[in-house]
Every structure is written in structure tokens, then in C-alpha cells.
Amino acid sequence: MALEVELRRIALPLRRPFRTAHGTMTTRELLLVRVVTEAGDGWGECAALDHSGYSGEDVATAHAALRDELVPALRAGAAAPSAAAVWHLPGRPAHPMAAAALEAALLDSELRAGGLSLAAHLGGTRSEVEAGVALGIPPALPELLDQVAAALAEGYRRVKLKVRPGWDVEPVAAIRDRFGDAVVLQVDANGAYSPADAGHLAALDRFDLAMIEQPLAAPSLTAHAALARAVRTPVCLDESITSAGVAAEAIALGAAAVINLKPGRMGGMLEAVRAHDACHRSGTPAWCGGMLESGLGRAANLALASLPGFTLPGDLTPPERYLAADITAPLPRRGAMMAVPTGPGAVAVDLDALEAATVSVEVLK
Ligand code: MG
To answer: 259 alpha carbon to ligand 1 midpoint, in Å?
Structure first.
């Protein structure tokens, strides 16, 4: 069966530079996958960033993996190309974000053809989900406090702060000092600490944080379990959770009291649902993380977050909060609550806006 695939690179300017333990981003460069099958067409967004600091994949390596490995393998397979077939491609484990984008596009085409929304297909049970704000490392403390004040004024309750050695206790203390318990506060280290920092991280215990996310470099589950015993703040894992199996193992080891689920990191939405099921069965709170998605990727994450095991606010704010341009219509928000899209597939792409943001298009032969 014919499978047409287009790899499109786009660039969306950020409203303000986004700084984490790995570097600073001013433009969100994104790779999109468009497929045309006998069922129809569909779009998928690749979560990879323009640098490989988060997971080892970046936009360029994901693009190459799709062109040289994943799409050829899918076309060569005995079965008709389908979203479910992507999981079995030999290149998938080495390129989870690339594979997830291909799966998303195929799933989108299948659901559009059937007139079914992604949330309904995945087993979503909610029409709205709660979003929290994620703040990068600002140039200085006053700007951080202004950003927290703005988030609370917009109706958000949860604020997540990026931290790293040298920027952790002081900003947390300043936020608690100014806003008290009005804010549900959590921090994300993106793996910037080592096991030797356990004593330092215990200094965060007195601030009643909802969690500390990925304190140690991935994928050390045993080291995170030891850290979890040494600090009172609940440990949440993000980068470490590369599959549903790893999620179950992290829970069993006591390495994660909370789990951040991202379809890109796990090789696809279908595996993210299986990881959700592992969390839900064990009573481990889960939430849906973000990768500064466009409206397309964020709409898909809203669908995922509508499943019953996503019990904590996710990185699900409307993209216009961080992007100065987008490729979909605005995603509806009511205070901290985001509407789960109900149209066919993930969400409609605005083709004019897409064209304006396009840097390059490669049609795979
Ligand atoms: Mg994270």
C-alpha cells in the first residue's frame, strides 16, 4: 500500500528565552511528519529539541532516523502501515521521539478517517484537564517572582520551576516567602544533580514542594530510589521513564513517587497509555509533561491527559503562553483548565500558519 511521507521543519519564535539546566532556547524548531495513506492524511509532531541535552535525540537526528530508518522499514514491512506497526520497527528504540512522531501522524490519519477524536480513542474520561505553568531559569529573581505572580493572576495554581546547582533553594524560598501556600510549587532539575547532592537537596524539604522532578541524570533508578529515601520531597521521574516497563520498575523500586509521562520520550502515544495504566494500577500519581509543543503536539497531550490516571496538573498551558506564533487555532482555556479537543484526530492544523512557519519540506521517495 502506498505511504506518502513528508518531513517538515518549522520554526516558531518563543515569547521569551527558555533556559534550563541544558541551555537556552529562543526559537522552537520543530519537526513535523505528514503521512498520506489510503485512509487519508495525518500530522504528527516530533518532541525533539534543537539540541540533544534532554534525551540524546534532536531535530536533525530525528529527521535522519525517519528518512533513513523508520519510514523505509515501515514501507518494507509485510503489514500495511499503521500506527500500531511503528512500535515494532527495529529503529524505534534508538529514536523514540522520531518513532512517536510517525506513530502520531499515522494515528491521526486513522482517526480522521474514522471521525474519532484522539482522546476518545485512547480512553479519555475527562472533558477538561488542569494545566500548570513551567518556568525556565530567569535572568534574575525579580523576573521569576513576576512570572509566578502573572501565572497566579491568570488562574493557574501549579508552578514548576527549572532548577540547577546554584539556582534552587534561593528561588524556592523567595517564592514561598512571597506567595506562601497559594502556589502548588514543584521543581525540575533535568538531571542536573548527583547522588552526592542528597544533603543539599534535603534543604528543599522544608518548602513543602509537590515534587522534585528528575533530580539525577537518567536512567539511574537505583540512585533515585536511594535519593528518595534521603529526602522528604516526593521524587518524580521524567527522563528516566523510557517505557511502560521502566515506569513499573521505577514504581516497584521506590525510585518515583510520581511519574511524568511524555509520549515522545517513550516512543509513542500507545506506549504512554500503557505506562499510564501501570501508574494507575499502582496508585502512582501521573501527569503529562511538555516539550514546548506547538498546538498540534499539545492537543495530543491534552487527549492523553484526559485518561483517569493523570491526577496531577500537567505542562499543558496553551502554546500562546510561550510561542509567539502557532500552527493551530488557540486551544481553549478556562482559568487553569484546558478543554480536551473533541474533533477528529488530534487537532486541525492551520495550513496557512504552517506555511508561514515552514523552514524546509522533504518528501520521502
Ligand atoms: Mg522534566
So the answer is: 10
219: pLDDT strictly greater than 70:
no
Distance 239 CA to ligand 1 centre (A): 7
Strand pairing class (158-162; 184-188): parallel
| Whether the predicted model's global pTM rises above the 0.85 cut | yes
Determine the distance separating the centroid of ligand 1 and the alpha carbon of 188, expressed in angstroms.
6
Task: Output DSSP code: residue 196.
Answer: G
Which pLDDT score, from 0 to 100, does residue 1 have?
A: 55
What dihedral do alpha carbons 11, 17, 20, 23 form, nearest 10°?
70
Q: What are phi and psi of 59, to 5 degrees?
A: -55, -45
Helical (H) or strand (E) element with 355: helix 351-357
Per-residue model confidence as pLDDT tens digits over 61-92: 999 999 999 999 999 998 889 999 999 999 99
DSSP string, 129-177: EEB-EEE---SSHHHHHHHHHHHHHTT--EEEEE-BTTBSHHHHHHHHH
- Residue from 34, 162, 164, 224 carrying the catalytic annotation: 162
Dihedrals phi, psi of 360, to nearest 5 degrees: -160, 155
Of 344, 234, 364, 334, nearest to 287 (Cα)?
Answer: 234
Output phi, psi for 17, to 5 deg: -55, 140
Distance in Å, CA 213 to ligand 1 centroid: 6
Q: Is 365 a residue of the active site?
A: no
Instruction: Read off the pLDDT of residues 324-358 as tens digits, 9 standing for 90 and up.
Output: 999 999 999 999 999 999 999 999 999 999 999 99
pLDDT at 227: 97
**Domains and their CATH numbers in the chain:** 3-114+349-364 (3.30.390.10), 120-339 (3.20.20.120)
| Ligand 1 centroid from CA 262, angstroms | 9
Name the grid cell of 137. Answer: 531559569
Other C-beta atoms closer than 10 Å to the C-beta of 244 total 20
74 Cα to the center of ligand 1, angstroms: 31
Active-site annotation holder among 95, 262, 265, 298: 262
